[in-house]
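Listing S7. Sequence submitted for prediction.
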Amino acid sequence: MKFLHKKVISNTKQYLKNKNLSATNFVFVFFSFFPLLPFKIKGLPVFVFACFAFFVFKKKEKKFDFIYLINSLLFILYIGSLFYSENIQLGLSLLETTLSLIIIPLIFTLYSGYKKTAKTILREEFTFKYIYIISSFILSILIFIISFQYGNYISTKIELSKFLSRLNTGFFWINEHPIYLSIYLSLSLLIIVSIFKNSKIKVLLLVIGLFQFFILLLLSRKGVIISFLISSILLFLITQKRKKTGLLFIMFFFLISSFFVFKFTPDTIKRFKEVFDIKSYNKVEKNSSTSVRYGVYNCALEKISESLMIGYGIGDVQNELQDCYKSKSKVLVSENLNSHNQYFGILLSVGVLGLIIFIIPLVINLKLFFIRKDYLAFSILLMFVMFMFFENILDRQSGVILFSFLFNFYTFKNYSLKNNE
């Protein structure tokens, strides 16, 4: 029996060696399926990654690079803000949600003590890119299937509000807000833009990209769409030698997808028109997302001005916003909305100092990625920076895990390659 057990272990090790797999490869494959994971197990890839990092720690071969921990400073400030928060229970709950902000930088710090070649890192990135595109494409197909329950693409229009509500309450095994579904698709599209030039499957990527972009427009998240368009156009123009041809391609891509959205979901166009309608800024209307956001931002800015330096503590932000909502609108009170702007959220939690400490690593890494000519990493981080103007993506595990993983991986990749040179 012992002989058989040893034989199985030996064969398994040999199989893994022959297949050129590693624990890190497995983790990257796991993360690449992130868009398809049920909400309740979104944190599982982080847990698995942490477990593998523990074994890497035991194989430590060199000094750790603690530089990666700079990306976790915001979380440390959040902990400190508990000392002046009254609602400790809510504060602890939010800290639990944002744990990835410190766990993932710590994981990459542990990995820095173990020899990893540039080739291995690049191979893991390659694996992540292609599987992530596939998983996001599957997600877009599932969303497309659900849309048929709220209209028909041949004879009728899609009832957008009911469709989006259904996505938010759950479909198939997925339960995710349309904003985060849009973020997943935006990232996939950005990856497609980055690999399109040198790919041998350009036609397939174009079809997948057009379909995902159509679904992105169908989800009609204005902030996400604007952030993606700016980042993708910038990435495309940076990596294309023929700028005029690139611009024409972008225009064609956008016009084709927009035509289908305009034809089948006029409500999407209506949501963009709200931004330029003066009525959106006179009174908070439940059915106007622009109107609601304007009301939220007014309260957020009002509260920020009252405690600019240190904020209110991570546990008390929502109570402060609710107090303001009571004097502004019943709609805002009933919805119990957060600040809908990550930078406002940080200012409300830990003040100006916290915001500065959060922004510094973003600027440092944007500069690093651009100097290293890792334009995909630069565009991804830029896109997340813009997302944060429209959503508190670090207050929900669907956003904070994906952001923290990509941010710290590309920091690890570029800093490691720089040191190796």
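Caption to Listing S7: primary sequence and predicted structure tokens for the chain studied. Residues 1-9, 11-21 have pLDDT under 50 and may be disordered. The first helix runs from residue 2 to 18.
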